[in-house]
Specification:
Helix content is 53%, strand content 14%. It contains eleven helices and five strands; from the N terminus they run H-H-E-H-E-H-H-E-E-H-H-H-E-H-H-H. With 218 residues, it is an alpha+beta fold. The chain folds into two domains: 75 residues, no CATH class; 120 residues, GIY-YIG endonuclease, CATH 3.40.1440. It is elongated and about 75 Å long. A hairpin with a 6-residue loop joins strand 3 and strand 4.
């Protein structure tokens, strides 16, 4: 990396650090010390250290690349608390339910359809935890991280589509909602690709075909 690229990278890091309440001079010293270590000293296996930053889309993601080969790991935090995001009684009631839910990407407005036999707020926190710790273990987290899109508080991005309890009926209802949103071209690509691979001959396609096919006359 040339000096111009390093200076640009440093300015981005300083900007994010200051927005998170960190001292500019301290971050600059840490950066130069890290660059010196990467140049002169082989990196040994050390105990991992975690640093937390407020998630801010693509700029925040650049930080993770800087610390890729070090013992420092970056965790993202959201700019809201549980008390703020559960600010409506009606919302609290729905997020305490289990069933079929929808998560919306705040940037592209595409959606992820999921199902859970636990409280929706529990499942929401799992999706957000995957984003914060850079894990692609959910299609929604994969979408946010890979495309550097924005997510939001539960009251803005999560919706209970239908109350249901864990079991075969929930599975059918969940599959139907995925089918509906797939046909309307609203699914995030990460879930759409899985749908195309796993359900190429969906029972709902067959049902729709039967309904729309006029009866034959003898």
């Amino acid at each position: 990396m040339d000096n111009a690229a390093k200076n640009k990278e440093l300015n981005i890091i300083i900007n994010i650090a200051e927005n998170n309440g960190h001292n500019k001079e301290l971050i600059t010293r840490m950066y130069h010390k890290l660059q010196q270590q990467k140049t002169n000293v082989p990196i040994e296996r050390r105990e991992q250290k975690w640093v937390s930053y407020t998630y801010n889309g693509s700029y925040t993601r650049k930080i993770t690349k800087l610390f890729k080969n070090t013992n420092v790991r970056i965790a993202f935090k959201v700019n809201h608390t549980l008390g703020k995001i559960l600010n409506h009684k009606q919302s609290i009631n729905s997020y305490e339910q289990s069933g079929i839910y929808k998560l919306t990407c705040q940037e592209c407005q595409q959606v992820y359809i999921g199902q859970t036999g636990r409280k929706l707020v529990t499942r929401y926190n799992e999706h957000i935890r995957s984003i914060r710790f850079n894990k692609n273990d959910s299609a929604y987290a994969q979408h946010i991280l890979n495309r550097q899109h924005q997510f939001g508080p539960i009251s803005q991005i999560m919706e209970l589509i239908e109350v249901a309890k864990k079991g075969k009926l929930m599975n059918i209802k969940g599959e139907y909602q995925i089918y509906r949103h797939y046909k309307d071209n609203k699914l995030i690509d990460e879930q759409k690709q899985a749908k195309e691979i796993n359900n190429q001959n969906s029972i709902f396609d067959l049902i729709t075909t039967c309904i729309n096919t006029p009866p034959t006359t003898l």
